[in-house]
Design a protein that fits this description.
- This protein is an alpha/beta fold.
- It has eleven helices and eight strands.
- Strands 1-2-3-4-5-6-7-8 form an eight-stranded parallel beta barrel, surrounded by seven helices.
- Strand 5, helix 6 and strand 6 (about 130) form a beta-alpha-beta unit.
- It binds erythose-4-phosphate.
- Erythose-4-phosphate (E4P) binds near residues 131 and 167.
- Erythose-4-phosphate (E4P) binds near residues 28, 135, 167 and 187.
Length: about 220
């Protein structure tokens, strides 16, 4: 399973990169705004800065919602760096744009996916990744992980190569559950990735190993 980090924060991206388990980055307009990144030039430079940190796919979202606008913006984003993946919303013109980008060999991430039917359309249009938002589904009392499972089954039934990118992850159990049902990628906040490291028995076990080692070394010194 690939791990992407879901943020536009360069500090968090660097921290995740240093863990040695990071495969890529996803951003969205809200995450860019949270970092105070606005204006075409600033936005472009920020994507390049992210690509300089992580050698993997970096999703950059188009703002336009009409086909021509999405194509124009997406082609400009893709030209910034070979790691850029153009993120396109699941709307009618978005699906047309996915088809266009796929015919040009430009990688895409279809975002804001909340149903198996939407995921099927994204795969048919040749999306590289499909992003079902599991946390937002959980927020409205719908099982987000079940959606990942359904999409996995549909893609496997027909041999679609679109990768299932579980998005809107809220906690480490989401990552585990998505891995169990076969998501190809999980894009996560840094906190969820870091939480995977922790287990009290690891902490206690390591303390004991080190204490025993110190004891043995002290005994040897005395002898
Ligand atoms: C994914 O690409 C989205 O940017 C993201 O996962 C949305 O997550 P949220 O529901 O926490 O905003």
């Amino acid at each position: 399973m690939k791990f992407f980090i879901d943020t536009a924060s360069l500090t968090q991206i660097k921290e995740a990169q240093d863990l040695g388990v990071l495969d890529g980055v996803t951003t969205n307009p809200s995450l860019m705004a949270k970092e105070g990144i606005s204006g075409d030039e600033r936005v472009r430079q920020h994507y390049i800065d992210i690509c300089d940190i992580v050698d993997g796919p970096v999703s950059a979202e188009v703002i336009a919602t009409d086909f021509e606008g999405m194509v124009r913006e997406g082609e400009a984003l893709a030209a910034l760096h070979p790691n850029i993946v153009v993120k396109v919303p699941m709307i009618r013109d978005g699906v047309r744009a996915l088809k266009h980008f796929s015919s040009k060999g430009i990688r895409t991430n279809c975002t804001l996916v909340f149903s198996p039917g939407q995921a099927l359309l994204a795969a048919k249009a040749g999306a590289t990744y499909v992003s079902p938002f599991i946390g937002r589904l959980d927020d409205v009392s719908t099982d987000g992980v079940e959606l990942i499972e359904k999409i996995r089954t549909i893609y496997d039934n027909y041999g679609y190569t679109t990768e299932v990118l579980a998005a809107s992850i809220r906690h480490p159990m989401h990552i585990i559950q998505c891995a169990e049902v076969g998501a190809d990628v999980a894009t996560c906040p840094l906190s969820a990735i870091l939480a995977l490291f922790d287990h009290p028995l690891t902490t206690i076990g390591l303390e004991k190993f080190l204490a025993d080692h110190r004891k043995a070394a002290a005994a040897k010194e005395k002898a």
